[in-house]
């Protein structure tokens, strides 16, 4: 099995570069792809850049040029559910694009993807369960070994938990309460928001390739989001994203 690993920011996948045994590298469409081994699995690792178009383009390359059998997208997200706090991990059971809306045309619902007839892309229950176990293992056993008390206190990370459910994507960094509250009203089961996963889910759906989407909550998508995000992405995100996915890869 060949596993494609993507992150929209360099920091989100930085530790993978140190752990993967890189056998070759290739540049396609301004992306650098590292091909190698991790836990004796074939790996293709890349930094996709931000946004839905960038992520979709990268996912297509991983599938068509490198023959990935599964894509793992990891990184951070803003909380939409009030039950989530900074440092919690969300494993997607569904993904969608919240800024897709052609409902002004007859016969289309809001969020529906044209010609596909659906708005939400479901994920493999098997892989979701494996990732949940990996996330719980990391948060309960490893997190406090890798991050000191001062860092955890800075972000209010006391007993981080794992959640599953809907992740929604759009080409906007949301940092105000009113916007996230409106989305939560439209999508009551929404867990968190980010800028890439829904588009990668569409690419994987159209190519019949499974996707695992795992996000660590970096902020609450409110007025403090920019401040929290910048610090979290440097001090915490690399460890959580690598720790969870590294354990998942051992199970695949």
Descriptive account of the structure:
With 252 residues, the chain is α/β, with parallel strands linked by helices. Helices cover 39% and strands 29% of the residues. The protein has one domain (74-251): Nucleoside phosphorylase domain (Rossmann fold), CATH 3.40.50. It has helices at 10-19, 52-64, 125-146, 149-154, 177-186, 197-207, 225-235, 237-251, and strands at 2-7, 21-28, 31-38, 41-47, 70-79, 89-97, 121-122, 162-169, 190-194, 211-219. Strands 5-9-8-6-10 form a 5-stranded mixed barrel, surrounded by 5 helices. Helix 1 (10-19) crosses helix 8. It is globular, with a radius of gyration of 17 Å. The mean pLDDT is 95.
Short account of what is shown:
The protein is an alpha/beta fold and 252 residues long. The protein has eight helices and ten strands.
Secondary structure layout plus pairing:
Elements: E1 2-7, H1 10-19, E2 21-28, E3 31-38, E4 41-47, H2 52-64, E5 70-79, E6 89-97, E7 121-122, H3 125-146, H4 149-154, E8 162-169, H5 177-186, E9 190-194, H6 197-207, E10 211-219, H7 225-235, H8 237-251
Largest sheet: 5 strands, mixed, barrel
- Give the topology string: H per helix, E per strand: EHEEEHEEEHHEHEHEHH
Strand order, main sheet: write it out: 5-9-8-6-10
CATH T-level topology:
Rossmann fold
CATH class descriptor = Alpha Beta
Number of separate strands: 10
Q: Strand pairing plus helix content: what structural class?
A: alpha/beta
**Helix percent band:** 25-40%
Integer count of domains? 1
Strand-residue proportion: 25-35%
Query: CATH superfamily membership, which one?
Result: Nucleoside phosphorylase domain
So, CATH architecture?
3-Layer(aba) Sandwich
Overall geometry comes to: globular
**In DSSP terms, counting alpha (H) and pi (I) runs of 4 or more, how many helices?**
8
Query: What's the end-to-end separation, in Å?
Result: 8 Å
Radius of gyration: 17 Å
* pLDDT averaged residue by residue: 95
């Amino acid at each position: 099995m060949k596993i494609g690993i993507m992150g929209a920011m360099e920091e989100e996948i930085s530790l993978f570069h140190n752990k993967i045994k890189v056998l070759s590298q290739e540049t396609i469409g301004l992306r650098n792809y590292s091909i190698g081994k991790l836990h004796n699995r074939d790996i293709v690792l890349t930094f996709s850049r931000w946004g839905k178009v960038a992520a979709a383009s990268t996912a297509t390359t991983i599938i068509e040029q490198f023959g990935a059998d599964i894509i793992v997208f990891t990184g951070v997200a803003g909380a939409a559910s009030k039950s989530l706090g900074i440092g919690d991990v969300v494993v997607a059971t569904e993904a969608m694009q919240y800024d897709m809306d052609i409902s002004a045309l007859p016969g289309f619902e809001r969020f529906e993807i044209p010609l596909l007839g659906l708005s939400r892309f479901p994920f493999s229950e098997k892989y979701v369960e494996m990732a949940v176990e990996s996330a719980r293992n990391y948060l309960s056993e490893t997190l406090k070994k890798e991050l000191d008390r001062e860092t955890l206190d800075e972000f209010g990370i006391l007993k981080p938990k794992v959640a599953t459910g809907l992740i929604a994507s759009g080409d906007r960094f949301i940092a105000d309460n009113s916007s996230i509250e409106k989305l939560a009203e439209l999508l009551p089961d929404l867990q968190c928001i980010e800028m890439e996963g829904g588009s990668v889910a569409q690419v994987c759906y159209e190519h019949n390739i499974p996707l695992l989407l795992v996000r660590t909550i970096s902020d609450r998508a409110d007025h403090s989001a920019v401040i929290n995000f910048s610090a979290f992405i440097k001090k915490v995100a690399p460890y959580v994203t690598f720790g969870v996915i590294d354990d998942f890869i051992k199970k695949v």
